[in-house]
Design goal:
Among the domains are: 128 residues, no CATH class; 55 residues, no CATH class. It is an alpha+beta fold. The model has no long low-confidence stretch (mean pLDDT 95). The longest helix is centred in the N-terminal third of the chain and has 24 residues. It is globular and about 80 Å long. Helix 1 crosses helix 2, helix 1 packs across helix 3 and helix 5 runs antiparallel to helix 16. The N and C termini lie far apart (64 Å). The strands form two sheets. A four-stranded antiparallel β-sheet has the order 1-2-4-3. A four-stranded antiparallel β-sheet has the order 5-6-8-7.
Amino acid sequence: MKIELLGGCTNDELEQRIQNVAAAGKLSRFPGNVIEVLESCNDYESNLKLVKRIIKMGHKSIIEHDYLVFALCDVTPIVEQTLIGYRMTSFTVKSRREVDFRTVGFYTPEFRNKSGEIHEKNEELKEEYNKHMKMLFNTYADIVDKEVNVEDARFILPYSYHDNFIMGVNARELEKMIIALRFSNLSKIPDLKKVGETLYKIVKEKVPYLVPNIKSQEPKEETGFEYLESMEERPEIKIIEKTNMISYTPNADDVVLESAIMYHYQCSKEKAKEILNNIVKKDEKAKEKMMYEIMHKEERRELEQVSFSFQIPISLAILTHLTRHRMHSLLVPEFLPMWDMNNYITPETVKAKANDIYQEAVKKNIEMKEKFEKLGVYEADLVYFYLGNQMLNVVTTMNARNIQWVCRLRCCNKAQWQIRFVAKDMAKQVSEVAPLIGKGLGATCMTDRYCGEGRECCGLIDSLLEADKKAENK
């Protein structure tokens, strides 16, 4: 594992970053314009003291002006999935759809017993674990060699493999991240704890105003589910069959249209409803025309006035495709306590070309995890036995604008097949309760007669345009 801060590292750059934050803190209470206030913050030590004093008072918005970019090398996908959950961050991740991962390497923890101490058989366990992980990577290679694309072969990859990505984050979110990785339930997972410690080491030198608050934190054993678990035993984990809408804004189409009228004419809801009814009397297609305009505006705030909630079955391999859409409220089960590893998916291409070796590898992986479990290995050290094929249920709530964006990208024929099925299910179910919004959901070739894939276009846009041309000529 290696984590580096990209830029902002020299003394001059550090002083400039602190100066910007200090100016933000000073701006609201001192005379002068922004530039004048910035120029008045010309002493590093004074700036640092000011920033520390302001954030100690709880005014942390000023540190959002300090933006840092990190390179995270050879971490696990468990780190990736966890950090991408911080929605006020930006990520670029090495693609598992395009890159062959057979030689990327993997992470090996120091195995602990149930008391959290180093296991008496740690070295033997590591040797057996390493041999097992190499078997899984060899299986991945064999599946690829059988002409299964890497996009589907990756479902057999263990969640110990080395992952690489770039993360951009403001200092406020970075503080929250470090505290969670070092002191919350996440800290039980070894490489998450190590990431937290490594980031803190960088912060102590390069973001010094964060140190006092982080340093004052204490480990927290609570998960937030203590009451729930005291009242009801954990049921057997059942993966739902397909994406299911669990709630939505009633009369969503009219809510969107009325909100457009309300803010445009500055009128009450009652008056907006009256205006909408009057327009429909003049033109029976008025609602459809208005919704089309709203869904094709640059700003589509009206669509944010309605929301839809879904429960979605998805694999670990594809979870990132959903998590990276950060403007929705996503609930992903925590890695601990561990999920049922018998809930997994097999891609159709793998079934057709390499099913035997795939199923055998999955079986051996479950057996190895259970063996380590019986030997008393700490549960948090077993998470690296998760495979990309592991299925889980997630819950999310999206407003209509976000759903439109997700569908534009994920309903495309070039999108990964599992997330494409999810997006199409979402679009279909939204269409059933909000048909006007539903008309604007789908790949851009379907909704806008536009494709941004260039040379990699699937070709559907050409047939659609040709069909439109024939229809016009009739």
